[in-house]
Write a structure and sequence with these properties.
By secondary structure, the chain is an alpha+beta fold. The protein is built from 6 helices and 9 strands. Helices cover 30% and strands 24% of the residues.
Length: 206
């Protein structure tokens, strides 16, 4: 039986809680091996000790939510994928909002590589907000859905309103925030360095 069929059978076959727990360790080890990540590197990213990660993968340590959540974030996969949770047959996509620095971020895609999309709700920034310009790997595309967005990009200052779009290389020092009194809603596409949103301004000639 091929791997796809085995995975399909695993997801539709009822399993006990003990079987689910026993399957977490091998699943974590296989995921780390595929990603070519060392225990030391994973420990540095998650804050979980190397010995705890090793015991977790070998089944000597019982998986808990406190351990699995940082691992899911590090691997950029849904928590259900780590525990092998069976599918419910519900076709709806359940988006799990996250809060980062007071901002609500809703991931709109489940992919772990390439261009990813997010919806952000940015609250009004307090007067003492740190507006230090920062850089990082990647390329970003922002579309303002509602409210106003302020972008400091290099030595330029942009005030963006609903329907306005900006895209930039994130190697350029930048800061993005909300300097108004209302929540700003933004659609964000983020890609690794070299990957950009492909925008066509008019239909191609036939």
């Amino acid at each position: 039986m091929d791997a796809v069929a085995t995975d399909r059978e695993e997801r539709i076959t009822p399993r006990t809680t003990a079987e689910v727990v026993d399957g977490v360790g091998p699943r974590l080890r296989a995921l780390r091996t595929r990603r070519d990540v060392t225990l030391a590197a994973l420990a540095a990213e998650t804050g979980i000790s190397v010995s705890t990660l090793s015991r977790l993968e070998s089944g000597q340590r019982k998986p808990t939510l406190e351990l699995l959540l940082p691992l899911a974030r590090a691997y950029q996969v849904p928590l259900d994928d780590l525990v092998g949770a069976p599918r419910t047959g519900d076709p709806r996509v359940h988006l799990a909002p996250e809060v980062h620095g007071g901002r609500v971020v809703v991931p709109l895609t489940r992919r772990t590589g390439g261009v990813r999309s997010f919806k952000q709700l940015i609250p009004p920034e307090p007067p003492n907000t740190d507006r230090t310009l920062r850089t990082h790997e990647g390329y970003e595309w922002l579309y303002v859905l509602s409210g106003r967005l302020r972008l400091l990009l290099g030595d330029r200052d942009f005030d963006l309103g609903p329907g306005e779009v900006v895209e930039f290389d994130t190697h350029t020092p930048h800061w993005v925030g909300n300097t108004t009194d209302e929540v700003t809603e933004v659609l964000c596409l983020y890609g690794p360095q070299g990957e950009r949103a492909h925008i066509r301004s008019r239909p191609a000639d036939r």
